[in-house]
Amino acid sequence: MKSGMTLDDEIRYLKGVGPARAQRFAALSVHTVRDLLEHYPFRVDDYSKLRPIQEVVPGEDVTVSGRVLGVSRIHSMRGPAVRVEISDGTGALYLIFYHMPYVASSFKRGSVVMASGKAAWRRGSVEIAHPVWQIVPDKALGIRKGPVLPVYHLTQGLTSSAVRQVVKTALEKYGPLIKGVLPEEIRNRYNLMPEPDALCQIHFPESVEAWQAARRTLAFREILLFQLALLLMRQGLKEDGGGPRFGAFTRAQEFLSRLPFSLTKAQERVIGEISRDLSGGRAMNRLLQGDVGSGKTVVAAYCLMAAAENGFQGAFLVPTEVLAQQHYRNLKRLLDSMATVEILTGSTKPKERCDILGRLERGEVNILLGTHALLEPGVRWKNLGLVVTDEQHRFGVRQRISIQEKAQLGQGNHGQGGGRSGGQSGGQGNRLVPHVLVMSATPIPRSLALTLYGDLDISIIDELPPGRKRVKTVALHPSERRHAYDEVRRRVGRGEQAYVVCPVIEEGESGRVSAVKTREELRKGYLRGLSVGLVHGGVSSREKESVMEDFVAGKIEVLVSTTVIEVGVDVPNATVMVIEDADSFGLATLHQLRGRVGRGAEESICFLVASPRSKRAYERLSVMCTTYDGLKLAELDLAERGPGQFFGTRQHGLPDINIADLGIDVELIARAREEAEALVGKLSEGGSEISGLLAEVKRKYGHVVLAGRSR
Ligand code: ADP
Ligand code: MG
Question: Pocket of ligand 1, candidates 292, 328, 566, 570: which has the most ligand atoms within 8 Å of its Cβ, to mutate?
């Protein structure tokens, strides 16, 4: 081993990797030796029980190896097929691939193949149809015990065996640099392998069991590192003054009594849970989950009111301008003479902004709501006591924590100025950490919640307000579109309103249905004579706002939009939605969208217009028509598309989950979280056996953990 070598060395300097191959690896985001070693196989094929071909019995599952004698194309009753003849000296058989003409080029005469599958007697010989197979080195011919071979995600021009070969070179050369960071005690507790062993076994497993054990070890490590990063980020917030202690809730109760409805049991329960936190003296960190329409906004308003009543300021952070305006209107109305509410967004005029910020700093604004604009440097609070974030998944982990940090900063400065830190908080010291309530309407599967929100307590509203009817959901082929728009006309005729949702703003290469064009077509066609508005992410927020106002006021009867209306918009008079190109959305998004209707007394309906291109796409749409459980849809979505896709956009702070499977490793994730907590606890006692772990956290998540800690 040469000195100066590190795992960050580029793989193009490895033996057997030239510039061309390096480029192929780059397409898999594999640039360095570390990337390569962490390019874990997603599956293994078991060739360990090889059978001589002459002993193969039709009807059994078998694994064989053999040299390719010839490749031919045949026409069978099941259609065209590629037929590969292989022989191991004891006998010969055929591998058959139906409707896969391209596989022919993968088999060269003379090369050696391992294959496994169900043997059958057909056309007078033994065949294995659609086997699992790999090309292997020549010496594999004739052996009795074949390897367990990992299968990698690949790209054009790379085979699993080529990847294995390069990994082997890398492991030989860089193996000594690989250090385990998991404390032995933890490894023992969960039966984990030493990490260097796990890395070998994941790429070159001795058995299927060894591969699984290695996968488990690496998954645990991955989750533990992320959880530690999350907890350490939070540690930057170590409270000296604790959280603000809210005493009275009288006016908050009064606010509830003014509502035109009574709370559901679930709303009451979560308000109870939250109130205990608010008056407990420690900073609250709570995730409030509830399906679309379950009434989270009222809960948020209650908490903000409680803050105001106790002399603290409240921040209400929302992801979009449209939603900010809507909440502002509601809060203004609900909190009327009870609290001073202001709104700050990207489109607030400079003069107005200046005025609001001045009053905020003097403590004359009780509740400030807004978009990302609330996170900007110029925003200084007098005594921020509570931060509510709506639709949390639109923000990153980093942002969630940064607003708390900022709040502390603001208070710290005031403290140094020698003044009281304002209101009734004066006696509690200056370094208070505000309470945080994050709300999410995308129900988050437990594994993902534990991963992303591992540092939060969770409250769930698992009940919809009474009288809610399910949104009837109907899938239509584009040729049946007329049916949907007839229904829109009928309902608008009755004084109701409609949404039409499209996946993209303007026609592009994607070939997706666009909002701009759809609106034009509808105005000239199916919906001639109706007032059809348009809103999407591309228009100015002023315009967005005025369109939304017109829609709320009923001046616009049909609103064509992109997913900007996905989050939180509440217009009870809208009772019908048409989603164009519905199969281009994830299930969780479709569910969110559908939740925009069905908010009033009228029975609502949602049309999913699509021509599904695959059986799977077709099934997804039928699931939407029969399933109304948001959590179930979210779990399906996660299993199908992975966590990155799950949230629609790749967001800050979403961990690089490489090997842990959020679909199946739920328990493992829970355990890793517990261990991370225990480790961070020990940290303050000066535990040193985790210095390796900490270094690894820093290497992997330093940009997240340290960014924003710029004080
Ligand atoms: P979400 O949880 O999706 O944010 P909202 O807070 O927007 O839901 O509430 C949806 C609608 O239900 C609003 O019109 C709200 O006024 C109404 N609502 C909330 N709670 C109740 C309740 N307990 N009874 C009746 N209607 C309610
Ligand atoms: Mg909402």
Answer: 570
